[in-house]
Structure formats: structure tokens, C-alpha cells
Amino acid sequence: MSVVLISTAAFAQSVTLTFTAKDAANQHVQLNRVSITNLTKGWQETIYWPDTTLTMQNGTGISDIVGANDYSPLRLSQNNPNPFTGTTEVNLMVTNEGTVALDIADINGRIVVVNDYTLQPGSHQFRITLATAGTYVMTARQNGQTFSIKMVCNGGTDANMIEYVGSVAMQDFASPQSPKSQNAPKYTTNNPFTFGDQMEYVGYATINGSEAESQRIMQAQGASQTFTLQFAETQSLDVQACPEAATVTDVDNNTYNTVKIGNQCWMKENLRTTRYANGTSIALGSSASTTTAYRYYPDNNSSNVSTYGYLYNWPAVMGNSSSSNANPSGVQGICPTGWHVPSDAEWTQLIDYVGSQTEYQCNSSSSKIAKALASTTGWNSSTFTCAVGNNPSANNATGFSALPAGLYGNGYYNHFGNNALFWSASVSSVYNAYCRNLYYNDASVLRHNYYSYYGFSVRCLRD
Hints:
The chain contains four helices and 34 strands. It is mainly beta. The protein has three domains: 2-61 and 191-230, Sandwich (Immunoglobulin-like); 74-185, Immunoglobulin-like (Sandwich), CATH 2.60.40.1930; 247-462, no CATH class.
């Protein structure tokens, strides 16, 4: 890790973090995004290219503007109101005549709406409508210039739209009072920060054609600092999709990649369907039940579903099927047609196979195989040798790509970033069923039985 300390006046009320990155050959690489976690205060921010800085106010920051500087030829005002419910408005100042592209992305970087407008110089008003609660970044682009703002939607409507309202008087748009440096911070968080908070930083970049995760930096932060995030040599893994089914599509038209491990064909993504294969809906849950089928947002955040899938209680996983420990289980349950919920015996088959292959073992131990099944991203950091969270860039030799979506309990969400828990089709007692658990601070794949009202992730096996 390379760190360059920038001198900061003792009375400064903010800390600015600046990030660069280098690969294993010590060559600079472009960061796709940087995840910044305040471990003391319990929040996380993600900044996306071309943003490479984050400013934290000692106290509570208030600015949500992430544009280049106040004299940019393209400037978005902060949307009003913010936060908002469903609809908000924003002004855009354009210096040069021509086409301006406006897009809005969710916190995972997925574009939810994009429109192009041909605009005259001046200030223009737009109405924004969003369908799902969450944090979003709106960006204006013209002739290589970009300007972004962060916006928070507390509740959605029925569509994602950017509507042109009309031109507005220039005095209605906040004008700059004095020029600012081109190196001014681009992004200021409104999350709380106090000098000395324990922080964690991890970057993501495309290396050799696939996204890699940098080494993590954990430290107390009391001054502005520039970090060079280091990427290790990426592994070349012999990971194969199932020859008979490289992908599978569920009833909601979600498409999942697959992976062949031993003689089994697994989904390599968590299930995110809202319906059974016969079209019956699975209710979005806000409470726990051992009888009613429910699905839940990972960490109670709808924007997590596209990456982490839903969490499901065991009644949702099984549908109306009975418990099975057969191999194969014969339980379609929540899975697409032609696929089934793995039994405890089928999970055991997977673990036994991976443990028998030396290339998947850590420190030559057949029980230390969790890293070979865990994804390279999303995991909290661990210092324990062979643990999933220790150097996650070395994870996922099998391609199974287990993600730490955490769990839903009886009225609470927990362990997002810590645990990947997967249901089986097998009961252990009247109220409990077996599951498999990967934990950021452990090297083994753990077998547990939990109450059936818990919400865990689901992976399906091909029939």
C-alpha cells in the first residue's frame, strides 16, 4: 500500500480522501468504483468513476453535489426536494448549445433511466420520477463534460422518467461566487464523520478483462489523504458454465449464469424471482412467518436485489413441497422449471467434491474451502488466514460466487457483508431446516439448522 499524506490545517473541519490504483505490475489502472466504509459510525458510500475523491465533514456534511466545479460549462443544481417521495425537480445550466445526455443510476451503478435533449445555452428545468426507494446519482453529459448530483428517493411511484419542464430564468439558478480549483473535491458525503473514526477502503477495477477487488485498507482517519489501492495478480480460473445450460431464465425473465462443479450444475447467482414457475406471486415480507411464503430485500434495501437476489423464508423456498434429503431432492419449490432446491445431501456432495480437489483447498486442508466458493467482492475484511474476508481477490476458484447477502430474522436484518446463507430442501426438526453458511471470518463452509422463518439466499440445481 502506498499512502501520501496531505498536510491539513489543525482547524480544518473536513477530510478529503483521494484514490488512485495500481496493478501487480505497478501500472496505474482506472478505478471503476471505490467502497468507503465508516466502521465506527456504521455507514458505507460508493464513489464511481470519474469521481475519485470523497470529502467527509467533521460533524455532518450537507452537500450532495458531485460535479466538477462551479465554473463547469454543464451544471446541475441539487434536486428539490431532496430526499423526495416519487417526484423531484432539478435545474440544469448549459453553456454550450447542443445535445445533453441525462441519466440516473442506482447505488449499484445500474442505469434506470436515460434521455437525450437538444438544449440552448441557459438554465432548464426537469422533473424526475423514480419507481423504487433508494439512493441515486443523476449525471449530465455533454462534449466530454460531466456533472452529477446524488439524490435520495424515500418512496417510489410507478415509473422511472426524466421530463423536460422548460427553460427558467438564469437568476433562479445558483451562480458561482468565486472560481474554484479544478482539483476541488467532487463528492461530499452527508453521513456523520468524526476525526479518528475507523475507516475501510476497497477499490474495484477491470483487470485482464474481469473486475477485481483491491487490497483493503483499514485505519483511523484524522486528516486528508491520498491512497494508492493495490491490486494483486488475478487468478486465471478454469471455471466452466454448464455445457447443457450456460444460463437459465426464471418466470420473471431474470437470466442467471451457471457453473459446473464436479457432476453438479449450479446457478452461480442468487435467485431473485418474485413468483413461482406457475406464476403465483411471493409476497414481499415485513414480518416473520413459519407458514406464509415471504421474500425480503437484503439488508432491507431494494437496490441490493439485482446483485444479491432476494432473501426467502423456508416456506417460500419450498412452496407446497415436503422436506426431502434425497439426491436429487425432487423439490422444484421456488426454482425455475427444470431446476430444483438442493437437499442437504446435495450440499454435502458439493462440499465433499470441492474439499477433495487440492486446487480448491487453503493451506492443503480439505475443510478450508470457503474461499473457493465465495465471491471476490462484497465481503467484510478478516485477518484470519484462509478466511473468506482475508484477501478476497483470491476467492472463487470454483466460480460458485457466493455473495454475503446476510439474513432476515424475526423483524431485523443482519450480517450483510458477513454471511452467505443458503437454504436446503431438508428439515432438521419440526420448526428448523438445514442451511449452508459462509462466514467472512471463517475458512470452512458451515452446516447449520435454523428456524424456518429466517430469510436466506437460494441457489438452484439443474435436474
